[in-house]
Amino acid sequence: MNDGIPIPAVQTRALLRERYDHMWSTAIGVIRAGSIELDPMLAAGLPDRRRGLTLIIRPSLDVRQRVAAFIDSLRVLEPEQHYYTPTELHLTVLSLFTATDQPEPFLARRKNYVAAVAAALRGIAPFPVEFVGVTASSSAIMIQGFAEGDALNTLRNILRRQLQALGLGHELDGRYRLETAHVTIARFRSRLRDGARLALALQGTRTQAFGATCVRSVSLVENDWYMSKGVTETLKRFRLIRPV
């Protein structure tokens, strides 16, 4: 955990690589065996009524196009799974509160959340994120992201402190403390046709380059669990400005 103390860029990338590798080594055997964890809502085909507030980064058009081509190749192998569309692809900076089926008390404080994010972003300069290779969990497939230096986690920690100071922090990190920079591209909703074949395809893209994005803005959105197109609403887009 980093509490705002800068970490050398090489060390930060190594720590991220270690986390992604751990995720991969834990998940790949599960995928190969077909013992994946199905998303119950997707598996049941139910509409998602849960809503949350999330600060996100949208990858550049070039990155989204490369990722979309990779998703198309996965869809050929496993067409029954849930795949994100190019406009749904995102990197989560921080979930201000996790999507819930009772969001009203939180959404009533939208203006407070917007103010907290605006305050946290003052002085945050644009920074690059490189997307290289895939990792996975028992329930999803992800593109690995690497932010330059410790820019992303510094932003997260400043935002956490700002939200706590305004009494908005009790729902932070509800699922886990977010420290990676991944982009989820697929979630499992059906049993795999051929787990070994999918595992082999993923193994072949462990080091594939998907491009880089210079993060010049971040967006605060109201969203469902899957950041679905047609549901996700941008409340405010914030530009990052390099300090003079």
Quaternary status: single chain
Shape: globular
As laid out across the biggest beta sheet, the strand order is: 2-6-5-4-7
The N- and C-terminal alpha carbons lie at a distance of 30 Å
Largest sheet: 5 strands, antiparallel
Please identify the structural class as seen in this structure.
Answer: alpha+beta
What percent of residues adopt helix (DSSP H or I)?
Answer: 25-40%
Polypeptide structure, described:
- 36% of the residues lie in helices and 26% in strands.
- It contains 7 helices and 9 strands.
- The chain has one domain: Cyclic Phosphodiesterase, Chain: A (Alpha-Beta Complex).
- Helix 1 (9-33) runs antiparallel to helix 7 (195-203) and helix 5 crosses helix 6 (151-165).
- The protein starts with 8 loop residues before the first helix and ends in a 5-residue tail after the last strand.
- It has helices at 9-33, 40-44, 61-77, 104-107, 110-121, 151-165, 195-203, and strands spanning 51-57, 82-83, 91-100, 127-136, 140-147, 183-187, 209-215, 217-223, 233-239.
- By secondary structure, it is of the alpha+beta class.
- The strands form 2 sheets. Strands 2-6-5-4-7 form a 5-stranded antiparallel sheet. Strands 3-1-8-9 form a 4-stranded antiparallel sheet, covered by helices on one side.
- It is globular and about 50 Å long.
- The model is unreliable at 1-7 (pLDDT under 50).
